[in-house]
């Protein structure tokens, strides 16, 4: 008899917003690092944010959610920190700090610099690790903090609040999660592609859309879909997933990064 198919699935998700600021936001290293980073591009620092110590620490944010995501102390084999906006502790390996707060002290690393596609890349990496046979449980920490300590070269959407989401991915019988990414510069075309993909999943399939992606269609176009609330460009759709994960049927999660022209989707069986 053929061997039973076993795939990696997102089995749990927790999300939370964070008030205040981290002590690291007042550390002089943040100013030094940011100044060195932007000097070749002649971008000015945000002296007001540096002076007031605005911003939060991704290691602190993620550590606060790990106990909720793994309440039984189940050990993880892999931990991935994924983020889009910069951390306030740029020289510190936040993913390694998080691994010390995670049962099993898993192999840990970070993924960034891919806009909203970063979260999907983390899931693709987790699925690839599972296929090696050495990863039965992976933890993915998605984080964004609202302070950018320099003025960007072009307008960017910053988060309305500090927020983190933890996804627990575990081996289970049957088909696992599927991640797809494609170049798609136009947001309206990206939404049409997602809606067509959702229809092919059949009746009963759920659809979760990032706020910006949903904005390219009318209420009639997106009938039956759920859109993330605006203001959280990186974690918004994943916060929505944390609320909807226990629902029946397959689920399609979609996000589009208009700046990079990248459409990303996650299909959960």
What does this structure look like?
This protein has 269 residues and is α/β, with parallel strands linked by helices. α3 runs parallel beside α4. The model has no long low-confidence stretch (mean pLDDT 94).
Describe this structure in a few short sentences:
This protein has eight helices and ten strands.
Shape: globular
- Strand segment count: 10
Largest sheet: 5 strands, mixed
Report the sheet-strand fraction. Answer: 25-35%
Number of helices: 8
Structural class, by secondary structure, is alpha/beta
Weakly predicted, low-confidence segments? none
Helical fraction equals 25-40%
How do the SSEs run, as a string of H and E?
A: EHHHEHEHEEEHEHEHEE
Output mean pLDDT: 94
Task: Write down the Rg.
Answer: 19 Å
State the distance separating the first and last CA atoms: 24 Å
Which terms summarize this structure?
269 residues, alpha/beta, 29% helix, single chain, 10 strands
Helices and strands in order:
Blueprint: E1 6-18, H1 28-38, H2 47-52, H3 58-69, E2 78-83, H4 94-101, E3 107-111, H5 117-131, E4 137-144, E5 162-173, E6 178-183, H6 187-200, E7 206-209, H7 211-214, E8 226-227, H8 236-244, E9 251-257, E10 262-268
Parallel strand pairs: 2-3, 2-4, 7-8, 7-9
Antiparallel strand pairs: 1-5, 4-5, 6-10, 9-10
Helix pairs in contact: 3-4
């Amino acid at each position: 008899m053929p061997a039973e198919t076993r795939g990696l699935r997102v089995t749990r998700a927790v999300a939370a917003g964070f008030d205040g600021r981290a002590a690291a936001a007042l550390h002089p290293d943040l100013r030094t690092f940011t100044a060195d980073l932007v000097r070749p591009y002649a971008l000015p620092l945000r002296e007001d944010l540096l002076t007031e110590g605005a911003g939060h620490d991704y290691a602190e944010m993620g550590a606060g959610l790990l106990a909720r995501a793994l309440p039984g102390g189940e050990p993880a084999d892999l931990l991935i920190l994924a983020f889009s906006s910069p951390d306030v502790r740029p020289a510190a390996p936040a993913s390694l700090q998080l691994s010390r707060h995670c049962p099993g002290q898993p192999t840990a690393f970070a993924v960034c610099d891919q806009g909203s596609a970063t979260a999907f890349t983390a899931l693709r990496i987790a699925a690839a690790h599972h296929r090696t046979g050495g990863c039965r449980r992976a933890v993915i920490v998605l984080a964004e903090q609202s302070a950018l300590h320099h003025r960007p070269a072009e307008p960017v959407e910053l988060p309305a609040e500090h927020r983190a989401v933890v996804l627990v991915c575990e081996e289970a019988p049957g088909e696992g999660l599927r991640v797809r990414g494609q170049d798609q510069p136009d947001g309206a075309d990206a939404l049409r592609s997602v809606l067509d993909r959702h229809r092919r999943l059949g009746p009963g399939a759920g659809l979760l859309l990032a706020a910006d992606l949903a904005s390219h269609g009318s209420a009639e176009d997106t009938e039956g879909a759920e859109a993330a609330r605006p203001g959280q460009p990186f974690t918004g759709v994943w916060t929505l997933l944390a609320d909807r994960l226990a629902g029946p049927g397959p689920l399609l999660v979609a996000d589009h990064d208009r700046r990079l022209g990248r459409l990303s989707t996650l299909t959960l069986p």
